[in-house]
Amino acid sequence: MTFELETAANPEGLKRIVIEPVTRVEGHGKVTLLLDDDNRVHQARFHIVEFRGFEKFIQGRPYWEVPVIVQRLCGICPVSHNLGAAKAMDMIVGAKLTPTAEKLRRLMHLGQVLQSHALHFYYLASPDLLFGFDSDVARRNIVGVAAAYPGVARQGVALRKYGQEIIRITSGKRVHGTGAIPGGVNKNLSPQERDVLLKDIDQVIAWSRDAVELIKKIYCGQADFYNGFGYFKSCFMSLVREDGALDLYHGGLRAMDELGQTIFDHVDYSHYWDYVHEEVKPWSYMKFPFIRSKGREEGWYRVGPLARINNCDFIPTPLAEAERKTFKVFGGGSATQATLAYHWARMIEMLHCAEGIRELLHDNDLLGSDLVSRGERALRGVGVIEAPRGTLIHHYHINENELIVRANLIVSTTHNNQAMNEAVRQVALQYLDGQTLTEGLLNYIEVAIRAFDPCLSCATHAVGKMPLEVDLVDAGGNIIDRLNKTSDGRCDA
Amino acid sequence: MSKTITIDGLTVPFREGQTIMDAALSAGVYIPHLCHNPEFKPHGSCKLCTVNVNGRNVASCTLPAVEGQQVLSDIAELNAERLALTQMLFVEGNHLCPACEKSGNCQLQAVAYYLGMMSPHYNHFYPQREADASHPDVMLDRNRCIYCELCVRASREVDGKNVFGLSGRGIKTILAVNSASGLLGDTDLAVTDKAVQVCPTGAILVKRRGFTVPIGQRVFDHLTIKDLQTGGGHE
User: Fold this and answer.
1) ipTM of the complex model
2) Over the stretch B81-93, which tens digit does the pLDDT of each residue have?
3) Parallel, antiparallel, or unpaired: how do β-strands A301-302 and A235-240 relate?
4) Cα of B211 to nearest chain A Cα, Å
5) Nearest to A167 by CA among A177, A181, A157, A156
6) d(CA A85, CA A395)
7) Does B101 sit within 8 Å of A68, measured CB to CB?
8) Whole-number mean pLDDT of chain A?
9) A96-231+352-373 belongs to which homologous superfamily?
10) What would the mean pLDDT of A324-349 be, rounded to a whole number?
11) Which residue of A has its CA nearest to B135?
12) At A91, which helix (H) or strand (E)?
């Protein structure tokens, strides 16, 4: 691991290279590199520069409002936050979901993961993958892809549109609807709505298969380069179903270490804090979670498509399962650690979503009218879901008046924080160390970050407890003063 | 032969004792308003329903109709003032429509849409206002109160309880609750009271009902506020 590159021993006099903003990711972030006169890398950090504050400002709001408020964390995967919060509120209202409610939520979620994965692969990642990481920057974008590969670009747009239509039909709007409510959902599917979605689903599955083939071809065509790019080993964490299957909506927590050994399995997520701890660092608005039993040095982990495909025993839809097996064979039978394998795993998941949608659309429970259930009230609720980018934890406490008094959100990108920093450092050492920096080389850093499909807007929701470090630097780059605000609000000069 | 006034050139009949607003609504003519509700005595405070009568600007909800009045309502000058007043209502409170459960059923929001409000225009005050969730079935969120006093009137005139009242002056006005603790939970308010049903915004809410009506089935998803209040169809 490269913890030694987190903070340079002697930053004075080092050159500072900044990549800001990191492009083709959701939200705003930057990378800073500190290099010496020979361009050797001494420090590499991935910073999140947004500041949100949702955990604070939902305090004092009624619990039934929360699933709708918190989805404003994000415009890309609001459904994840809507569902994560709704699952937490299910606990608070003591609900056991009706089959109709659970299946409608699952449909909404699969539609969302499909559109989000399509957005990432086609709009954000494909310019790197199709043209090369250091190709001409003028065309390394979705417009360039549309010009050179119009069929691919069209599929990306159409896949995203289909997923967005599912979200619109199940939640009322393509972005920021109101589908999931505490204890259930607020609408079912009409036969007409179902038929509209059924009309195109076979085409969506076919396009999703094309997408898997495309990334497989790209990856395997440069297997050594892709396997080695930003390579490092880490633990993985995700939800799995009771029988070990991939399940994006519900399950128990499973984590494996860097050797593929189980750390914990089928953990009831309502006590996630017994297994995961969040560390704060003074140079980032984003926290650094790690698995308690492994400690902060070895317990950081990855979440998201790669973690899920590595962690699950099987995928419960046939086409995606066949692709998972191919992926597994390619990885030598054990967990695949390659950073760029995220892209491949993501497309396998997109295929799974398309298959899962077709299966659900043939289930008449979606047309049912039993939408909401209630049970014994609780003052605490935890909801966990596998969002497109990985495990998403929503945790709330309410008071006797039904108002939120405390909230904790751990979003996918936060889980991946240390891993993204590790990827940045590995790439910096592999490709930038001692080199004359070019735009193309700096894009290698961004390619490593993009593999995770980070959502930086989602990842910076905390307020009030963030430590902060302010350096006063003179013209020669020497630090002449430093002010620290600790996580308890104390300032040390 | 009945008596008549004209509103924007249209001849509108009225009965003795009706206000201009009464006559307009009876005839299907919409004059924007928020504090007025035909079930209650006129209040004349929001000023959205200001019209020009024979050259003078007056609140149409309080001015009795008189034979031969020439009323101007749907004119650019008055609509601009209505828009400004609505924008001021938005910035004086904390009206966060995207997260508000009244969205789609809210008269303030519907009036804003009707008047073509595209932004708040003025700087937000972001006032510190308290929410009161002490009642088991009803929540009072003062962030969204526009001081129309419909709940005050409903509680007194229909429920016979006197639960609500306005306290303070000017920008420091608040909707007060008539109990020793000042909390809603210590009043005799019932969830079935008219005062709970009459709020035009999301200030008084029945608990645990938020967002149960899906988008597409809310009052203003298909109707404008003009349609709703004049019994008209789609525009």
Assistant:
1) 0.93
2) 999 999 999 999 9
3) parallel
4) 6
5) A177
6) 8
7) yes
8) 90
9) Cytochrome-c3 Hydrogenase, chain B (1.10.645.10)
10) 95
11) A401
12) helix A78-92
- Interface contact B206, partner A, CB < 8 A: no
* B101–A contact, CB cutoff 8 A: yes
Supply A373's token pair: 């259930």
Beta-bridge partners for A26: A455
Identify the H or E element spanning A301. Answer: strand A301-302
Element (H, E) at B21: helix B20-26
* A444 half-sphere exposure, CB direction, 13 A CA radius: 24
B133 vs A176: CB contact, 8 Å cut-off?
no
Asked if pLDDT for residue B1 goes beyond 90, the answer is: no
Nearest to B215 among A69, A173, A403 (CB): A173
Neighbour-count burial for A9-47, b at 16+ CB within 10 Å, e otherwise: eebeebeebebeebebbbbbbebbbbbeeeeebbbbbbb
pLDDT grade, residue A29 (50/70/90)?
Answer: confident
Residue carrying structure tokens 């999140």: A48
Q: Describe the strand order of the beta sheet including A301-302 as a list of residue ranges.
A: A262-267, A252-256, A235-240, A301-302
CB A424 within 8 A of CB A31: yes
Helix H or strand E segment including A342: helix A341-361
- The full set of domains in chain B, from first to last, is 3-74 (3.10.20.740), 82-230 (3.30.70.20)
B89 with B146: CB under 8 angstroms? yes
Distance CA A454, CA A417 (A): 9
Residue A221 is classified by DSSP as: H
Contact status, residue A337 vs residue A234, Cβ threshold 8 Å: yes
Q: Which of A307, A156, A162, A339 is nearest to A235 (CA)?
A: A307
Q: How confident is the model at residue A492 (pLDDT cuts 50, 70, 90)?
A: low
Query: Sign of dihedral through CA atoms A139, A140, A143, A147?
Result: positive
Going by C-alpha positions, the residue among A137, A230, A227, A220 that lies closest to residue A431 is A230
Report the alpha-carbon distance of residue A112 to residue A12 in Å, rounded. Answer: 47
